[in-house]
Amino acid sequence: MTNSSPYLYVGYYCNNNCVFCSEADDEYLEHLKNKSLDEIKKELTVIRKNYDFVSVMGREPTIRPDIFKIINFARRLKFRQLGITTNGRLLSIPSFTRTILKSGVNQVGVSLSGATAATHDKQTLVPDSFKQTIAGIKNVLKYKQPGVSLLVNLPMNRINYHQLKRELKLLTDLGVREINILNIAPLSRRSRSKKIIMPMAKLGSYVFKTLKDNGYLDRENLKILLVEFPPCSLPREGRKYFFPCLEKNNAKVRIPLCHRCPYTGICDGVLDSYLRLYGTADLNLN
Q1: Does the structure show a pLDDT above 70 at 32?
Q2: In this structure, is residue 160 part of a structural domain?
Q3: What is the model's pTM?
């Protein structure tokens, strides 16, 4: 078992059914079986040889019956940072949240897909999932110790991007201080659609303008990253907020702009599946 990234995928099942999911209906993932606990332990051991941090993911790790055994094993490996990425629904149960936080997890990442139940639930295809996710975020904020990080991920797509301003206000009013704004990857059959995926430069420009015009980039106690927005999809002044995914993707290719881009050392290029949707016309380094 090899692992070239600090992201540990512990399973391929989920209690949501998001319309934009890049890990659902995929020609590769749909043929994989859920990993055994022994397989996961071996993978964690390999990760620890290369990284001092790990994020437990995929697709929804909290629904595994042995999730606490996984976390406890990772804790014994003495990772500096032990994170879990979740849709947050089970965190709406206070006892579950307290147990997660006492287990050694020191970063919790929760995904939120809109500022309202109508928009969020339309994407997850699960009634009341918004209510549960918000309750989960509140529980983490309530029970976490000062050294524990709560990170909220906002996956941007054509359905929800217009609610970004409202999402930011909702989260910061709750007390969230770390936010990742994610550019959805068209990696699965359901996500490879112009009904879901937007032209990256249009989305990148909108996201950065929303952040700048509403003062979110000037807040000293707020950390915001633009994840998987290639620099050529962002305005010049927004490129310093670009954050590349640490998980390498062989489906990314170099485009002509890459040959004169100062970010080629940290940016792996553009997904071929995106290029088949929109090409490179909207991308620039001006």
Answers
A1: no
A2: yes
A3: 0.93
